[in-house]
Amino acid sequence: MNSMARSISNLLFKGLSFSGSPASRSSTIAPGLLYLNGMRYSTSVPNDPDTHDDFKPTDKFKGSGLSLKDIVERDVKENPVMLYMKGVPDSPLCGFSSLAVRVLSLYHVPLSARNILEDPELKNAVKAYSTWPTFPQIFIKGEFIGGSDIILNMHQNGELKEKLKDIAANQEKSE
């Protein structure tokens, strides 16, 4: 997380705890590498003819019969809270994605997410669907809300609680 985002996050979230794992707070990223708790992980596979097919990147959506636009539409319709972010909720890879996860986790709602860094074509499909250029992108009950700055503002003025109350109530009933 860059220092500006960290400073803003610390200023805005004084007194709020992060419910993610300690590992998600100690990771750093470099192009093609993920450092987590002192260990180095490769996040890309070289296009090497010696790499076995089992270890080459795959297009998870190929063969599904759905276009990327269809995938995004399905995600948004079927998931009460859908987050397109850099990284995953347990290990966000940018300060703004981390902020979005932290705010949404305060409401104990089911959170569905896709890592847009895994597929540049999916990233472009989400941008086209929302007509919004930046990430993270948050959809609630099928409606595009915006990014982490928008939901932080909604959290601070009470709008987010109102928007999520029926989702949170349904979650409590099912537990």
What does the secondary structure layout of this molecule look like, with pairings?
Blueprint: H1 3-12, H2 22-25, E1 28-30, E2 33-36, E3 39-42, H3 68-78, E4 81-85, E5 87-88, E6 91-92, H4 95-105, E7 112-115, H5 120-130, E8 137-140, E9 143-146, H6 148-157, H7 159-174
Parallel strand pairs: 4-7
Antiparallel strand pairs: 1-2, 2-3, 4-8, 5-6, 8-9
Helix pairs in contact: 3-5, 4-6
Structural class: alpha+beta
Question: Count of DSSP helices?
Answer: 7
What is the chain-wise order of helices and strands?
Answer: HHEEEHEEEHEHEEHH
Instruction: State the major sheet.
Output: 4 strands, mixed
Strand content: 15-25%
Distance between the termini: 34 Å
**Spatial arrangement of strands, main beta sheet:** 7-4-8-9
Portion of residues within helices: 40-55%
Mean pLDDT: 77
Can you walk me through this structure?
With 175 residues, the protein is of the alpha+beta class. Helices cover 42% and strands 18% of the residues. It has seven helices and nine strands; from the N terminus they run ααβββαβββαβαββαα. Strands 7-4-8-9 form a four-stranded mixed beta sheet. The protein has a three-stranded antiparallel beta sheet with strand order 1-2-3, with no helix packed on it. It has a two-stranded antiparallel ribbon with strand order 5-6. The longest helix has 16 residues, at 159-174. The two termini are 34 Å apart. The relative contact order is 0.14. Mean pLDDT is 77; it is low at 14-33.
